[in-house]
Predict the 3D structure of the following.
Amino acid sequence: MKIKSAEFTMSNSEVAKCPKDRLPEYAFIGRSNVGKSSLINMLVDQKNLAKTSGRPGKTQLINHFLINKNWFLVDLPGYGYARVSKKAKKTFQKFITDYFEKRKQLVLAFVLIDCRHEPQPIDMEFMQYLGESAIPFNIIFTKADKLKPGALERNLASYEQKMLETWEEMPQYFITSSSKYIGRDELLDYVENVNDE
Ligand code: GDP
């Protein structure tokens, strides 16, 4: 997919106030500092559409960006500061779970994971929550430039092993680096194909 236009539409903390359009939308979510803003900026090829900073937890809103006037990229708040609880729903802010449970336009979610890290309970719990809520999701492993190819392969293999303790199969995943422009075409082509289905 070629990006012809990408514009900020609105920020909200209530799903009821999100855009009324029926356009398909794709949500991006992950732990604070995972590289979500950088990834979004890479995808749309703009330096500053999504704000980046080292300051964790700053984006506390549902942000809609209209892409090519025919789909929404949705930037959701970073999680990871709430304590992990047995009841996943309580771990994540209500407006996030509301978004996932009520937003009919949502096609799928991309859960961002830093490729350097061991599986983290909060990510596992979040994916578990998505699974239980029957929300389709893919994984995006970020910051791939930070690992040598062998180490990346080993980390992904151990991530998959951990996932297979609770999942029947490893969800589809993408490997990206925003600083090296890795994974951009694969992700955009994937969204285009899903949109065409
Ligand atoms: P967010 O909090 O998830 O939106 O994360 P940011 O996009 O603000 O990135 C957090 C930090 O990681 C920043 O210092 C970025 O420069 C850095 N970062 C993000 N993506 C990459 C990447 O692909 N490679 C490298 N080396 N650093 C990255």
Residues 136 and 143 are 23 Å apart (CA to CA). Strands lie at 6-12, 25-30, 62-67, 71-75, 106-114, 137-142, 173-175.
